[in-house]
Specification:
two-stranded antiparallel sheet, disordered N terminus, 11 helices, alpha/beta
Length: about 300
């Protein structure tokens, strides 16, 4: 595809917050993420489709509009941080990182292979752009809290975003972090995004441990909470653009209401069947055709 988004051409090129890109292009990039996810999982032979598809628009808006980054300098101290609590959806991030210039596109051809830096879960020691490793759920909001506190102590104004799943926030450690973050009043320096697609790995979240109302629970712990349609790129842009300044004040929780398997009819109808799986060649071709048909 021909991208119309800004890309770095040197180690010092900074991608600023709130970059100008049309909502139509951001929606297109989300579907591009879905297509590339299909390609990568097809190459690896197994992967997480429906969980990745539910947060494709979130990835698109964050990386092509919201985050302040230097892809040519992944460890730039003033970059905005992004931590992936639901690490099993990293497949959707790998093509984005390659597109922005964190590493060569050829790396994608090794996805899922022994010795590859790109695997089913992100590893900060192997893949440039990954701010913290994840796989075992429940840890990344605690780490994000620590990063946000470090920014306060060092006088830096970066933001730390943490994407969690609504199944993941059934973990007790997550609520310890939520409680601590409310106490330390980190303002817009810490942003939790809940990909609230209604499912965890074993079925509906409501049948495991009910976590609703998510927004009310965060608010009770001293957070500012807002609910948005997680597939509406305009609403996501507006929400992230309106974040309060880094510093004092309530941290922010964005409850993104999403649909597991969003973007493919067969996965939306049976999301749990595609939490982990592999499309047959015929299913793959039909899926690609369905997505490509709505891409301008």
């Amino acid at each position: 595809m021909t991208a119309t988004v800004e890309k770095p051409d040197s180690d010092r090129t900074e991608l600023e917050r709130g970059r100008r890109v049309s909502h139509a292009e951001l929606a297109r990039r989300a579907d591009w993420i879905r297509l590339r996810t299909i390609d990568l999982i097809d190459r690896a032979g197994l992967g997480h489709y429906s969980s990745t598809f539910s947060c494709a628009e979130i990835f698109s808006v964050l990386y092509y509009h919201t985050l302040r980054l230097r892809p040519g300098q992944p460890d730039w101290p003033d970059r905005d941080r992004f931590l992936l609590g639901k690490g099993h959806v990293a497949t959707g991030l790998w093509p984005v990182y390659a597109d922005l210039g964190y590493y060569p596109a050829e790396w994608l051809e090794t996805f899922g292979q022994i010795g590859s830096p790109l695997n089913d879960h992100p590893n900060m020691r192997l893949a440039p752009g990954v701010d913290f490793s994840s796989g075992s759920l429940g840890h990344n909001l605690s780490v994000g809290l620590g990063m946000s506190l470090a920014g306060r102590l060092t006088g830096r104004d970066y933001r730390t975003f943490v994407l969690t799943g609504d199944g993941e926030i059934q973990e007790g450690q997550v609520w310890e972090a939520i409680m601590a973050a409310g106490h330390y009043r980190l303002g817009g320096g810490l942003v939790a995004i809940v990909d609230a697609n209604g499912f965890s790995g074993h079925g509906p979240t409501s049948e495991a441990i009910n976590i609703e109302s998510v927004a009310d629970r965060f608010t009770a712990f001293g957070w500012q909470a807002v609910e948005v349609d997680g597939h509406d790129v305009a609403a996501l842009c507006e929400t992230f653009d309106a974040l309060p300044p880094v510093g004092e004040g309530r941290p922010v929780c964005v409850v993104a209401r999403t649909r597991k398997g969003k973007g493919l009819a067969m996965m939306e109808e049976s999301p749990q069947s595609w939490h982990l799986g592999h499309l047959t060649p015929e299913q793959r071709d039909r899926a690609r055709a369905e997505i490509e048909a709505r891409m301008p």
